[in-house]
Amino acid sequence: MSIDWAALGQVFGVTLVVTVGIVGLFTVGIVGTARTRTEGATATADAGAPSTGARLGGLAAYAVCAAAVAYGIYLIVAA
Known about the structure:
This is Secreted protein. The protein is mainly alpha-helical. The chain is built from two helices and no strands. The longest helix has 29 residues, at 5-33. The protein is elongated. The two termini are 25 Å apart.
């Protein structure tokens, strides 16, 4: 039995990059849809809503994450 180390390394590298990318996109979604502090607000004060652009960017990031998960599930089930 022989192990193709180049192919194993390639799979590891692609997996690492995609995982970090999906986690990064999810983080962008969280930051984009999170409430922000208003100017002069204290830690106990109510937070303001994010801007429309930030909210749309966050929702788009969530949509890309959901599409990546759906594609992964499709690959598993179709095989």
